[in-house]
Amino acid sequence: MTHRSDHRAYFFKIDTTIKKIRNALQKQLIDAGFDLTVDQWVLIDHIYREQGISQNGLAELTFKDPPTVTRIIDLLEKKGLVERGLAVGDRRKFNLFLTEKGQTIYNEAFPIVAEIRRKGWGDLDEADYQHFVRIMDSIYSNFS
């Protein structure tokens, strides 16, 4: 017996929607003169919210593998946006911090990100948001 979801390409719809949003954000960042990729922005955003996060913690939080996070952090460090600090009690680990330049870039780029979010949400209301979150959390939990 088949389930009604067997014939619905909902993962394709989720994936294409995410790609559309990422492409729109990337275009806006470029048009505004930011030398940032969406993946770099995602890490900057999380470091801003949790100054001192470890690279492993950042990888877990962003669902990126540790080598990818290391590569992106290396690029952000070369741009002067992020700095690594040795973790207290473990010289093998680094904690991540935004530099002053990184915080400035965050503050300048965030309104662009917020506008993309507003545009994507359009005229949907809070009830729509709660329904959306419930559905996405349910799908997520099904794979946990």
Helical residues, percent: 55-70%
- From the coordinates shown, what is the CATH architecture? Orthogonal Bundle
Total helical segments? 6
Structurally, how many domains make up the residues? Answer: 1
Q: What name does the CATH topology carry?
A: Arc Repressor Mutant, subunit A
Q: Order of strands across the biggest sheet? A: 1-3-2
Roughly how many Å apart are the termini?
A: 24 Å
Shape: globular
Residue fraction in strands: 5-15%
Assign the CATH class.
Mainly Alpha
Protein name: MarR family transcriptional regulator
InterPro entries: HTH_MarR-typ, Tscrpt_reg_MarR-type_CS, WH-like_DNA-bd_sf, WH_DNA-bd_sf
GO molecular function: DNA binding; DNA-binding transcription factor activity
Domain HTH marR-type: 7-141
Tell me what the structure shows.
The protein has helices at residues 10-31, 38-49, 55-62, 66-78, 100-121, 126-142, and strands at 53-54, 82-87, 90-98. The chain is mostly helical and 144 residues long. The protein has a single domain (10-142), classed as Orthogonal Bundle (Arc Repressor Mutant, subunit A), CATH 1.10.10.10. A 3-stranded antiparallel beta sheet has the order 1-3-2. A hairpin with a 2-residue loop joins strand 2 (82-87) and strand 3 (90-98). The model has no long low-confidence stretch (mean pLDDT 92).
